[in-house]
Structure to design on (185 residues):
């Protein structure tokens, strides 16, 4: 798999609670690649937590830092990179990912996402009286953009190792399709 990747990274995108960090760690372990979590890298660079960045500087400042951190991390390829839920919404970031990586959307249903995000009260965008309504609006806004990812994997209520196995199978199919396409041209 690493030969097929070359310098490209595997970039996991999707909403909060989709399993990007958990699945990403296990995928990296399976493929013997380094794992990076963009949110953790942003916190390290800023010297504060994401909720603190949102509270002190606002979402726009956070998104600018996120864009810069992801651009830097993509230079380290090949890696497995878990991005924040809003990262793929940035056109510049999507372009960099397309150039330097393979985007993988971990798609999950609302009930799965809500069950997972309720376990942690650290999601700045859900700190309001209607977190489920917020999640629905995010799904409406972001799912059409996430759908442009190279690969889509259903992040369902199954053991994470099963999702990783499905993801590796989808990756192999993607590489086979890429090989066939380049043979035609």
């Amino acid at each position: 798999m690493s030969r097929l990747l070359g310098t490209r990274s595997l970039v996991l995108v999707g909403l909060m609670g989709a399993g990007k960090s958990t699945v990403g760690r296990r995928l990296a372990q399976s493929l013997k690649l380094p794992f990076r979590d963009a949110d953790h890298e942003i916190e390290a660079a800023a010297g504060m937590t994401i909720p603190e960045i949102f509270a002190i500087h606002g979402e726009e400042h956070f998104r600018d830092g996120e864009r810069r951190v992801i651009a830097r991390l993509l230079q380290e390829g090949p890696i497995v990179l878990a991005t924040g839920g809003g990262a793929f919404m940035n056109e510049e970031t999507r372009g960099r990912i397309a150039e330097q990586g393979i985007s993988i959307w971990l798609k999950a249903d609302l009930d799965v996402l809500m069950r997972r995000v309720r376990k942690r009260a650290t999601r700045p965008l859900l700190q309001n009286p209607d977190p489920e309504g917020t999640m629905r609006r995010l799904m409406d806004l972001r799912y059409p953009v996430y759908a442009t990812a190279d690969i889509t994997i259903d992040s369902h209520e199954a053991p994470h190792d099963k999702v990783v196995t499905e993801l590796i199978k989808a990756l192999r199919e993607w590489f086979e399709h890429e090989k066939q396409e380049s043979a035609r041209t």
Observations:
- Residues 17 and 116 are 5 Å apart (CA to CA).
